[in-house]
Amino acid sequence: MARSRVQRLLPFVMGAILALTVGAACTTPTLPLPPPASPSIVEGTEPGTFHLSSTNGAEPNALILVVNRNEAVPRDRRVSGTIADTQGSWELDVPATSGDLLDISQESGTVRSPTITITVR
In the record, which residues are listed under signal peptide (predicted)? Predict the structure, then answer.
């Protein structure tokens, strides 16, 4: 008799354990997305551009966003972006002049990292 009672309650107990486990997993905070590593910078092939590149410095397949703070650069050219490869490597030509400050961040899924700021030299 006791065994059949345990057998009847087992699905309810297992369901309760599963519900608690799933509930705890949903409330667990995710780790913040770190900013991308500082890229290397060289003069670009086009006048007024610089080439940024980073090897394994971002999350795989992350969206890399670069914003030039120089207000003399036209608004439609102040924002540049690319997508990192599956190893987190990326490269991008951006309109800039020596001394410009570039804010660089990455987005993965719906999470955006803090920015890093580099000076073009």
Answer: 1-24
